[in-house]
Design a protein that fits this description.
Helices cover 49% and strands 12% of the residues. Helix 1 runs parallel beside helix 10, helix 11 runs parallel beside helix 20 and helix 12 packs across helix 20. A five-stranded parallel sheet has the order 2-3-1-4-5, with helices on both faces. Strands 7-8-6-9-10 form a five-stranded parallel sheet, with helices on both faces. The chain has 494 residues and is of the alpha/beta class. The two termini are 47 Å apart.
Length: 494
C-alpha cells in the first residue's frame, strides 16, 4: 500500500505559488459557503511521525479563516481525559455546525500506538476500530463531513526528521524520545497503519493517502483533497432522514393491541410507612458507604431517571442525593436543547456532562428524549430516532467498558394514578407550578408514548445496560426499589 506513496513527487516553489494562490481562494470561499449553510467539517490529520502534520495544519489555518477553524492537538493527555471514557475527549471537541474541527492526534492514535507493543492485541484493535467506524458513521448521519488525511514519508526521511538531519525548511521542530521509538518501530508501524486504514476506509469517510516527502507537494495535495471534500459536502442533499428499517413506525390498531413489557410492572406494589422508614434508612446508609468506596476505588456511576409526567422522578432523585455526599455527584436536568446544543450531535450535550472517575452523574431525563418526546412530538425524523437506538447502545457500551456502573430507571404509573396526581397538583398551592398545559397535552398522547417506551426498552435494554422498570403508583415503593437497585449494582461492581 505505502510503496505507491514513495515515488518522489515534488513541487518547485514557483509551481507551489502558481497552484497555491487559487487553491487558497477556493478553500476560503468554500469555507464561507459551508458556514452559511451550517455544515460542519472534521479534518483528521494522521501519519507517521516526521511527516509534517503540524506544518500542514498551520498551512490550512493560513489559507483559510482561522476564526472558523478549531485545531485540537491531543498529544498531551490530561487526567481529566484519562478519568473518563476514551471518546469523551473527542466528543467535547467536536466543531459546531458551520465550523471546521482539525484533529492532530485523533481517535486513530490509540490504535496506531499498538505498533509499539511487544505483543499487540489484534483482537482488541479490531474491536476498537469497529467503535471508530460507529463513531464516524453517527457523525456523518448527523450531517458532518469527515476528511481523513494520511501523510506518508519513507523511513530514511523520517530518520532525518527525527534526528534533525533534514534540510532546514523540512526539519521537525518537535523531536523527543518518544519520536525515536516510532522510528525504530517504523516497519511495524506501517503494518499496523495498513490494518487501520483498510478497516476504516469507508464510503462515508474515506482515507486520502498523500506522499509527504516534499512539503510543497504535501500541502497542495492536502488542500486539494480538502477542497474537493468540502465541495462534495455542499452538494449533499442533507442529513439522511430515511428510516433505518429497524422499527416499524406504523401505529398498531387499538383492537390489535398485544401485551407489552409495561404490563408486567406490578403497579399495586406498595410499602407501609413503617417499613418504608426502615428500608429508607438501610439503603441510604448503604448507598452512602458504597459511594465513598466507589470514590476511593475511582469507579464512577451513572443513574438515568425517566418516566411518565408526575411519576415521581424528582422525589426519587432526592432520596438518592440525600444519601450521597454532595462532593461526589453531579445532578443534570435536561429540557429542550439550547442553540449551542442544537449545533452539535444530540449526544454531545450528554457526553460533555459525564463526571470523572470516582464521581456520580445523575440524569433527570437523558439521551432517551430522542426516542421518546422527540419521536412522539415529531421533533426528530423517523430516520433520526430509529438510528438513535444503536447510537445510544454504542454510547452506553463505551461507558461500561470504561468501568462506569450504569443504572437506568423507567418509573411507571397507571393513567388513573397520573390523573389523580395532576388534580392533586392543581389543588395544592405549593405544587401548582408542577402542572402545565404541556402535561395535559402529553397525557392525550399516552398511547403514543406507551409505544415509544415499549420500543425503547426492547431496543436498549442490553446485557451491559439493562432497564429497571419501577412500579411507581406507590412512591414509597418506587424510592426503595431505586435505592436497592443502585446499591446492588454498585455492590456487584465493587
Amino acid at each position: 500500500m505505502f510503496e505507491a506513496l514513495e515515488t518522489g513527487k515534488f513541487l518547485s516553489d514557483k509551481e507551489f505559488e502558481r497552484r497555491g494562490a487559487p487553491l487558497r481562494q477556493q478553500l476560503l470561499k468554500t469555507q464561507f459557503e459551508l458556514a452559511a449553510r451550517d455544515l460542519p467539517v472534521i479534518v483528521v490529520v494522521a501519519g507517521v511521525d516526521g511527516a509534517g502534520k503540524g506544518r500542514l495544519v498551520h498551512r490550512l489555518n493560513v489559507w483559510m479563516d482561522p476564526r472558523g477553524i478549531e485545531t485540537n492537538a491531543l498529544w498531551m493527555h490530561s487526567d481529566e481525559e484519562e478519568s473518563r471514557p476514551y471518546f469523551w475527549r473527542f466528543w467535547r471537541k467536536l466543531p459546531p455546525r458551520g465550523e471546521i474541527g482539525v484533529f492532530l492526534g485523533s481517535w486513530y492514535t490509540r490504535a496506531l500506538r499498538t505498533a509499539l507493543d511487544k505483543q499487540p492485541d489484534s483482537e482488541w484493535r479490531a474491536h476498537y476500530l469497529k467503535q471508530v467506524n460507529d463513531f464516524e458513521r453517527m457523525l456523518i448521519d448527523d450531517g458532518y463531513r469527515i476528511v481523513k488525511l494520511w501523510l506518508h514519508v519513507g523511513r530514511e526521511t523520517q530518520r532525518q526528521q527525527l534526528t534533525e538531519e533534514a534540510p532546514q525548511k523540512q526539519q521537525n521542530p518537535r523531536v523527543g524520545a518518544d519520536d525515536k521509538l516510532w522510528w525504530k518501530a517504523y516497519p511495524k508501524v506501517l503494518q499496523v497503519a495498513q490494518d487501520i486504514i483498510l478497516q476504516t476506509d469507508t464510503g462515508g469517510a474515506p482515507w486520502h493517502l498523500l506522499e509527504a516527502e516534499d512539503r510543497n507537494y504535501r500541502e497542495v495535495a492536502a488542500g486539494e483533497a480538502l477542497l474537493q471534500a468540502m465541495r462534495d459536502h455542499l452538494q449533499r442533499p442533507g442529513v439522511d432522514r430515511r428510516s433505518s428499517g429497524t422499527v416499524d413506525p406504523t401505529p398498531v390498531p387499538a383492537d390489535a393491541r398485544q401485551p407489552r413489557v409495561l404490563d408486567t410492572v406490578d403497579c399495586t406494589a406498595s410499602l407501609s410507612k413503617d417499613k418504608y422508614r426502615k428500608k429508607l434508612n438501610k439503603y441510604q446508609a448503604r448507598l452512602q458507604d458504597l459511594s465513598w468506596r466507589a470514590h476511593r476505588e475511582r469507579r464512577s456511576f451513572i443513574a438515568v431517571f425517566e418516566g411518565w409526567d408526575a411519576a415521581g422522578k424528582g422525589s426519587a432523585i432526592r432520596r438518592v442525593t440525600g444519601a450521597i455526599d454532595p462532593r461526589l455527584y453531579h445532578l443534570v436536568q435536561y429540557a429542550a436543547p439550547t442553540d449551542e446544543e442544537r449545533a452539535h450531535h444530540y449526544l454531545w450535550r450528554f457526553w460533555r456532562n459525564i463526571e470523572r472517575d470516582g464521581r456520580a452523574t445523575l440524569f433527570d431525563r437523558s439521551w432517551y428524549g430522542r426516542v421518546l418526546v422527540e419521536r412522539v412530538e415529531e421533533l426528530a425524523s423517523p430516520g433520526e430516532w430509529q438510528r438513535a437506538y444503536n447510537e445510544i447502545n454504542l454510547f452506553e457500551e463505551q461507558l461500561v467498558e470504561h468501568g462506569v456502573v450504569l443504572a437506568k430507571f423507567w418509573i411507571h404509573i397507571t393513567p388513573e394514578e397520573q390523573l389523580r396526581r395532576f388534580h392533586e397538583r392543581e389543588q395544592t398551592p405549593h405544587k401548582q407550578y408542577k402542572i402545565t398545559p404541556e402535561d395535559w397535552r402529553n397525557r392525550d398522547k399516552w398511547h403514543d408514548y406507551e409505544r415509544a417506551v415499549e420500543d425503547m426498552v426492547a431496543h436498549t435494554s442490553t446485557r451491559h445496560a439493562p432497564w429497571t422498570l419501577v412500579a411507581g403508583n406507590d412512591k414509597r415503593h418506587a424510592r426503595i426499589q431505586i435505592l436497592k437497585t443502585l446499591c446492588k449494582a454498585l455492590d456487584a461492581a465493587l
